[in-house]
C-alpha cells in the first residue's frame, strides 16, 4: 500500500503542476485584458475549459482502459484535481460550471456502473457548492484555506461514493484517500504561488501603461491605442481626438504649491473619467499625455457627438472645487481642441498635431474655450 501511495502522490503532483503551468501560459496568451474591462470574460474562459476537457477526456479514457484498479484510481484522482484547479482559476459561473457539467456527463457515459442516486445528488451538491464558493469565497487567493478545506471535503465525499460502488480493498481505499488529501494540499499551495505571480505580472503590465499619479492611461498607452484606432477608423473616418489641459496650471502651482497642483490634476482626471463613463462609456478613453495635458481618443463618434461630449467635459471641469491643506479653495477651467480624422491624414500623429494646435488656439482665445474643425479663424 505504501508504495502505491507514494507512486500516486508523485505522479498526480507532477501531472497537476504540468496542467496548471500550461493553463497559466494559455491565460497569458489569450487574455490581454490586464485592466479587467472585458464585459464578457466567460468567452475566454471557455478556451481554458476546452483545454481542460481535452485533458479530462484523455484521463477518463485511460482510466477506463486501465488493466489495474490502482491505475484507474490514480487517473481519476488526477481528473478530480485538475477539475478543482480549473475551478480555482476561473472567475465566471458559466466558465466554471460548463466544464464541470460536461465532465460529469463524460464520466457517466464512461463509467455507467458507478452512476446511481448518490452520484447524481453529489453532482448537484458540488455544482451548488461552486455557485456558493463563487459568491462568497472569491477570489481564490484571498480564501485559500477555506477553499482548500471545503474542496477537500467535497473530494472525499466523491471518493466515498466511488469506493462504495467499486468495492476495492481497504488498503487501496486508504491509499486513495491519503494521496488525494496530500496532493490537494500541495496543489492548492502551488496554485496560490502561481496566482500571486499572475497578479504581480498583471499589475506590472498595467503599471507600464498607466500614469502613477492620476491612474489614467499614459503616453505609451496613448501611442499604442491611437495607432490601433486610427487604422481601425480609417475606412469610416470616425476617429477623433480631444486635446485638453488645465488653464493657468502654472499659476496654481506657484500660488498654492505643488501639492495643490497635484490635487487639481487628480480632480481633473477623476472628473473627466467620470464624465466619459457616463456620456460615452464605450467610445472615449482618457490619457495623460503631458504635465497638465490630457487627451481623449474618440471612436465610432461623429463630429456633432464629439463636440457635445467636449462641452460636457468643460462644464464638469467648471464645477470642480479643490480645497488646499490650509483651507483655500481653487476653481479652474479647461481649454480644448477637437478634431476628427480627415481623408488625407496619414497617421494618428496628423490628427494629434491638429488637435494640439486647436488647443493652443483655444488658449489664445481667452481659455475655457473649445476649438473645432469648424472654427473659421484657426
Could you explain how this protein is built, in words?
- The protein has 378 residues and is of the alpha+beta class.
- The protein folds into two domains: 2-208, no CATH class; 219-371, Alpha-Beta Plaits (2-Layer Sandwich).
- It has helices at 2-30, 41-65, 69-89, 93-110, 117-136, 144-166, 170-208, 219-233, 249-256, 258-279, 303-318, 348-364; strands at 240-246, 284-288, 293-298, 322-323, 329-330, 334-340, 370-371.
- α1 (2-30) packs parallel to α3, α1 (2-30) packs parallel to α7 and α2 (41-65) packs antiparallel against α3.
- It is elongated, with a radius of gyration of 29 Å.
- It starts with a helix and ends in a 7-residue tail after the last strand.
Amino acid at each position: 500500500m505504501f508504495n502505491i501511495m507514494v507512486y500516486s502522490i508523485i505522479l498526480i503532483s507532477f501531472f497537476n503542476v504540468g496542467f496548471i503551468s500550461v493553463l497559466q501560459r494559455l491565460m497569458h496568451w489569450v487574455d490581454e485584458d490586464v485592466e479587467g474591462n472585458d464585459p464578457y470574460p466567460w468567452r475566454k474562459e471557455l478556451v481554458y475549459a476546452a483545454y481542460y476537457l481535452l485533458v479530462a477526456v484523455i484521463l477518463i479514457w485511460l482510466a477506463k482502459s486501465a488493466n489495474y484498479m490502482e491505475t484507474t484510481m490514480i487517473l481519476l484522482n488526477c481528473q478530480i484535481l485538475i477539475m478543482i484547479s480549473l475551478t480555482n482559476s476561473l472567475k465566471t459561473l458559466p466558465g466554471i460550471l460548463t466544464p464541470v457539467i460536461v465532465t460529469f456527463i463524460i464520466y457517466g457515459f464512461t463509467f455507467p456502473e458507478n452512476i446511481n442516486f448518490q452520484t447524481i445528488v453529489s453532482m448537484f451538491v458540488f455544482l451548488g457548492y461552486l455557485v456558493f464558493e463563487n459568491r462568497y469565497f472569491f477570489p481564490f487567493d484571498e480564501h485559500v484555506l477555506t477553499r482548500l478545506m471545503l474542496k477537500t471535503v467535497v473530494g472525499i465525499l466523491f471518493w466515498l461514493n466511488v469506493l462504495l460502488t467499486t468495492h476495492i480493498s481497504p488498503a487501496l481505499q486508504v491509499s486513495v484517500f491519503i494521496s488525494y488529501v496530500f496532493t490537494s494540499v500541495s496543489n492548492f499551495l502551488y496554485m496560490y504561488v502561481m496566482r500571486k505571480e499572475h497578479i504581480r505580472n498583471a499589475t506590472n503590465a498595467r503599471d507600464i501603461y498607466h500614469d502613477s499619479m492620476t491612474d489614467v492611461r499614459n503616453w505609451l498607452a496613448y501611442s499604442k491605442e491611437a495607432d490601433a484606432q486610427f487604422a481601425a477608423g480609417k475606412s469610416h473616418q470616425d476617429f477623433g481626438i480631444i486635446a485638453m489641459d488645465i488653464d493657468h496650471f502654472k499659476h496654481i502651482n506657484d500660488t498654492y504649491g505643488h501639492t495643490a497642483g497635484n490635487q487639481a490634476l487628480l480632480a481633473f482626471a477623476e472628473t473627466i473619467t467620470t464624465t466619459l463613463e457616463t456620456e460615452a462609456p464605450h467610445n472615449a478613453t482618457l490619457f495623460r499625455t503631458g504635465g497638465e495635458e490630457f487627451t481623449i481618443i474618440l471612436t465610432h463618434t461623429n463630429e456633432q457627438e464629439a463636440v457635445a461630449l467636449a462641452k460636457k467635459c468643460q462644464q464638469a471641469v467648471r464645477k470642480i472645487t479643490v480645497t488646499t491643506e490650509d483651507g483655500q479653495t481653487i476653481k479652474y477651467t479647461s481649454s480644448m481642441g477637437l478634431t476628427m480624422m480627415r481623408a488625407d491624414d496619414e497617421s494618428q500623429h496628423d490628427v494629434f498635431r491638429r488637435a494640439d494646435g486647436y488647443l493652443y488656439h483655444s488658449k489664445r482665445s481667452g481659455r475655457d474655450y473649445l476649438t473645432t474643425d469648424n472654427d473659421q479663424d484657426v
